[in-house]
Amino acid sequence: MTHATPDLPDLVLAAWHAYDPWRQIVGAEEISANVSTNRVYRLVLSDKKEFVAKVSSYGSFVHFRQDHQRIQQWSGLLSGGGFRNFLARVAERDGKAFVYKQENRWVAFYHKAGFYDFLPKLLSDTDVTALGRNLASFHQASLRVTSELNPTWKTVGSDIANLYDQLDSTEWRRERAIGNVEEALIRRHCDAFLENVEACGYHAWPKLPILIDWNTGNFSVGFDTTGFKFYSRWDYDWFRIDSRMFDFYFASRVVRESGDQTVFSYTTGPLFEPRFIAFLKAYHSVFPLSEAELLFLEEAYRFFILNYVVRSGEHFFRSAIWQRLIRESLEVYLPSLERLDLRPLVNAVLT
């Protein structure tokens, strides 16, 4: 008999029984983030081991399963280097990542990741440099193993194509209060993204597994005399295999002068702060960036707003937060790209 708390959904109980019917769940605690629609639970088992369960309904089960298979591969391929214990391991059965589906919801389990230190809400100058160097080293290690990683079906092109399709739905537009003017704005930015990535030669750039969301609650570090080193990471909501440049907008938010904030927006301001330039210089000293890549930050930002806020934000943010963010996307974020000039940032990093 399972002695889980009443708050643990039947879906998780059924998934755990399918994964491991021999060990019982004797305790559970919800540890979901306050902004996400995913439900996350810490499970305590009868042998005192702990796992984490994530319940999701975003996208398709096929993509959810494929992402976890690739994350499992990625973690295994990093096992021989300095990041061998960084990624929390996806629970496996018969050598494959275990995922469970029930109607329109699915579950994955993770071995509980240990943690050491967490970054402060406001990083010091030393922390900013350490973050740049650590992310560069992590990207290098991930790029080295990418050739052995199976590709995924998810691409920036397929995501933008999905957004085009959703704009054809009257109900989808109604839920987002998207009228004719807003629809034209979104279509114009979809066109701009596809045209600009084609023009810059993006399709020939190296692709590697990335995590995009580097909020400080998603990873822990170990401080040392040089700053810190990455210690553990456990959130994979925005995993994809793509250009490293998609990781940089959230890095700019982590290092900004205002620090971590409870009420947040997604403006371009952090991209131009001296602290982000310092971060980029530290990253560049380990894993050099090209001019074309730095200029691509504009498209990485555009894609983030179009895909993760406008197209699918209701799956990543609680309703009130998402409603505010989508209005800001249409009224502030996307229009701000008309005035964006990254040349000063490029010159500051490369000269």
Q: Work out the count of structural domains.
A: 2
Strand content: 15-25%
Shape: globular
* Annotation, overall tally of beta strands: 11
Major pleated sheet? 5 strands, antiparallel
Count of helical stretches: 12
Cα gyration radius (Å)? 20 Å
Order of strands, widest sheet: 1-2-3-7-6
Write the layout of secondary structure elements.
Blueprint: H1 10-19, E1 25-30, E2 39-45, E3 50-56, H2 61-77, E4 92-93, E5 96-97, E6 99-102, E7 105-111, H3 125-145, H4 156-167, H5 170-175, H6 180-199, E8 208-210, E9 219-224, E10 227-233, E11 240-242, H7 248-255, H8 274-286, H9 291-295, H10 297-311, H11 319-336, H12 343-350
Antiparallel strand pairs: 1-2, 2-3, 3-7, 4-5, 6-7, 8-11, 9-10
Helix pairs in contact: 3-8, 4-6, 4-10, 6-10, 8-12, 10-11
Please give a quick description of this structure.
This protein is α+β, with helices and mostly antiparallel strands.
Describe this structure in words.
- This protein is of the alpha+beta class.
- It has 2 domains: about 10-110, Phosphorylase Kinase, domain 1 (2-Layer Sandwich); about 125-350, Aminoglycoside 3'-phosphotransferase, Chain: A, domain 2 (Alpha-Beta Complex), CATH 3.90.1200.10.
- About 45% of the residues lie in helices and about 15% in strands.
- The protein has 12 helices and 11 strands.
- It has helices at about 10-20, 60-75, 125-145, 155-165, 170-175, 180-200, 250-255, 275-285, 290-295, 295-310, 320-335, 345-350, and strands at about 25-30, 40-45, 50-55, 90-95, 95, 100, 105-110, 210, 220-225, 225-235, 240.
- The strands form 4 sheets. It has a 5-stranded antiparallel β-sheet with strand order 1-2-3-7-6, with helices on both faces. It has a two-stranded antiparallel ribbon with strand order 4-5.
- α4 (about 155-165) crosses α10 and α6 (about 180-200) runs antiparallel to α10 (about 295-310).
- The N and C termini lie far apart (about 65 Å).
- Residues about 1-5 have low confidence and may be disordered.
